[in-house]
């Protein structure tokens, strides 16, 4: 019987098997890459301190200007808040109005919803005050009768120009009233200046925020170009766009956040430097106010706002330039 000389069958090598990763492993890898990206962004800023400081300083100056003006505007609004309370109506009654009727009218007007309080100045009180202030006391004594009318000073609750003018028309139409005078021009100017200042700060904030985004876009674009070969290698080994994008997003956020923190420091230094002269000026005007610093909300919001602008600039730069870098086979 012949032997079977057929060589034994060779076992074929097994093919590659796809490894399944759990959701927990993916989440751990995602968190780890976020930590590595943040560490990489901070490390690159530390390795190039001059370039990083210049970018952060530009962002800080751009943000400190509108934020500092907003702080000064808040101080101006607080200082002038009490000035509105001096706005009042001088309501001159007819000469034949009796003093009892004058006081009754004042009590009646006190009940109006738009009136804070009233002050009665009788004809005799007005004459005595005019004598003491004018210096014509002897001339007034020679007059046969007191020429000054009875007066009620009305202090409105709402000093907005429209509300005060409405109250003026209401009082001027009463039969006992001869004339209701109101000098509202300075109130209009005050409100107009404050409104103009607020709008200018808003426009300046939008313009400089756009400038911050453009600065970060240019900075991240240069960083992408300098790491072109590294990005190509990462894409060759299977790195996704999200994987490549993440370190640059952290770089933009870190630069913006650092610019916001430096802006807070610049504003604090400027307020400290201006505090002495401003307080002295307020003292000369016999004001009890003093220059106040930033409120806690500004201290918290400004760095986060700046970091968000940096993140937006980095996203725009990466979305625009990352697609142009692809491996060439």
UniProtKB/TrEMBL annotation:
Keywords: Cell cycle, Cell division, Cell inner membrane, Cell membrane, Membrane, Transmembrane, Transmembrane helix
Biased segments, Basic residues type: 1-14
Region: Disordered, residue numbers: 1-24
Gene3D superfamilies: 3.30.70.3040
Transmembrane stretches, start-end: 51-73, 200-220, 248-274, 294-318
Domain FtsX extracellular, chain residue ranges per copy: 89-178
Mode of membrane association: Multi-pass membrane protein
InterPro entries from the UniProt entry: ABC3_permease_C (IPR003838), FtsX (IPR004513), FtsX_ECD (IPR040690), FtsX_proteobact-type (IPR047590)
Signal peptide: none
GO BP annotations, alphabetical order: cell division
Keyword Transmembrane among UniProt keywords: yes
Domain (ABC3 transporter permease C-terminal) ranges: 204-320
Main location: membrane
Keyword field contains Plastid: no
GO CC list: cell division site; plasma membrane
Subunit annotation: Forms a membrane-associated complex with FtsE.
Protein role: Part of the ABC transporter FtsEX involved in cellular division.
Similarity comment: family membership: Belongs to the ABC-4 integral membrane protein family. FtsX subfamily.
PANTHER family from the UniProt entry: CELL DIVISION PROTEIN FTSX (PTHR47755)
Protein name per its UniProtKB record: Cell division protein FtsX
Originating organism: Alloalcanivorax marinus
Gene name for this UniProt entry: ftsX
């Amino acid at each position: 019987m012949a032997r079977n000389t057929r060589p034994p069958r060779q076992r074929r090598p097994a093919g590659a098997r796809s490894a399944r990763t759990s959701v927990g492993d993916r989440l751990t890898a995602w968190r780890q890459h976020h930590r590595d990206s943040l560490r990489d962004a901070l490390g690159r800023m530390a390795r190039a301190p001059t370039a990083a400081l210049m970018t952060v300083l530009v962002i800080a100056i751009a943000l400190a200007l509108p934020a500092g003006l907003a702080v000064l505007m808040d101080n101006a609004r607080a200082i002038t808040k009490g000035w509105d309370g001096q706005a009042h109506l001088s309501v001159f009654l007819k000469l034949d109005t009796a003093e009892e009727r004058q006081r009754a009218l004042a009590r009646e007007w006190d009940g109006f919803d738009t009136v804070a309080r009233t002050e009665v100045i009788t004809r005799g009180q007005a004459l005595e005050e005019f004598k003491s202030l004018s210096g014509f006391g002897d001339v007034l004594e020679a007059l046969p009768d007191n020429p000054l009318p009875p007066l009620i000073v009305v202090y409105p609750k709402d000093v907005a120009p429209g509300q005060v003018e409405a109250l003026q028309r209401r009082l001027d139409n009463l039969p006992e009233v001869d004339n209701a005078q109101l000098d509202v021009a300075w109130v209009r100017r005050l409100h107009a200046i404050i409104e103009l200042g607020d709008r200018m700060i808003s426009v300046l904030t939008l313009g400089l925020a756009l400038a911050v985004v453009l600065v970060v876009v240019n900075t991240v674009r240069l960083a992408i170009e300098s790491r072109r070969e590294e990005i190509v290698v990462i894409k060759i080994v299977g790195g996704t766009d999200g994987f490549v994008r993440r370190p640059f997003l952290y770089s933009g956020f870190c630069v913006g956040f650092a610019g916001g923190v430096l802006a807070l420091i610049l504003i604090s230094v400027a307020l400290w430097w201006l505090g002495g002269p401003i307080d002295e000026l307020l003292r000369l005007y016999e004001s009890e106010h003093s220059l106040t610093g930033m409120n806690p909300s500004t201290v918290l919001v400004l760095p986060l706002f700046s970091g968000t602008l940096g993140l937006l600039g980095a996203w725009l730069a990466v979305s625009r330039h990352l697609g142009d870098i692809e491996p060439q086979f």
